[in-house]
Amino acid sequence: MPYPEERLRRLRRTESLRRLVQETTLTRDDLVYPLFVVEGRAIREEISSLPGLYRFSADRLASEADEIQELGIPAVLLFGIPKRKDPQGSTAWKKNGPVQQAIRLLKRHAPGLIVMTDVCLCEYTSHGHCGLVQGAEVLNDPTLEALCRMALSHAEAGADLVAPSDMMDGRIRAIRRALDQAGFSHLPIMSYAAKFASAFYGPFREAAESAPAFGDRRSYQMDPPNRREAVREVLLDIEEGADIVMVKPALAYLDILREVRNACRHPLAAYNVSGEYAMVKAAAARGWIDGGRVMMEILLAIKRAGADLLITYFAKEAARALRAD
Fold it and tell me: Mean per-residue pLDDT for 276-285?
C-alpha cells in the first residue's frame, strides 16, 4: 500500500516503538575480548596504537578477569608475546609460555570465563611469519606439526577452545586429529576460516610484535577481492572439523559475512580488528565523530551481517553501554 496509507515512520516515533520492532539485537553474550599476554611479572603496559588496551603478564590477569566477568563478557581470546623468538617459534608450545601460564591462572581464578587461544606462530618466530620458512617461502605442511604442538599445549593447560589463525591449508584437520588422539575430542576449534591479507592489522602487529621481517602474508592469507574463495575456505574448514568459523576483518568484509552466513549453519565469528578500533578512537579523540555511537553502529552492522560472536577490542566499552542501556 503506497503513501499516504503506508507510513513507515509510524513505528519510529518513540524509543519504545523502535525497540519493539528492532530486527537486530546486540547483547553482552555476543562479545569476546582479546587479551595480550607477555612473559614476566607485574606488567601492565598500554599499547600506544590501541588506546585503552594493555599487555599483561599472567600474574596481572586476575583483576582484569574480575572486571571482564563483572561486565558480563563471557569469553576472552589470548595472544602470547614471548621474550625469546626463534625461526621455528618453539616457545609457542612451551609449558610455561605466556599463554599457557595465563590459561592456568584464568581457569583457577575465573573458571566460568571461556578461555580461547590464538594458535599461530607469528608472535613466536624471529621472522614474524605464521609458518616455518625456507628462504623466502612460507612452508605449509611442515608448519602443521608445529601448530598441532601449540594447540595441544593450550589444551593441556586447560583452554576451552583453540583458534588457528595461520591460514595454512589443512591445519584444521591436522589439529582436530592431534587433539582427538591426545584425549581432547571434546575441545572445540574456532577456525579463522576466511582471513584476508588486510591493511587493517597494523596496530595488532605493534601490540603482538608480530610484523613480518621480510615480504608479507599474501601467499597464505586471502586476497581481499575474492568473495567466492572465502566461502570455499569456510566450507573446507567445516569439512575438516571446525566447530566455529570466522571472517577477519569484519567491517570491510560485511558482504563476506553475509555470504558465509547464507552458506553454512555453523556458529559464525567476526573479528572487529585493531585498525577498525584505532580509526574510531583516533577520530573520536579529535572530536570528528561520536565514538560511542559509532562503536555501537559498527558492532550492530557486524551482527546484522550474520555474525554470532563478535571478537572486538570494544568489548568492555560495549558491555558497559549495553548494561546502561
Answer: 97
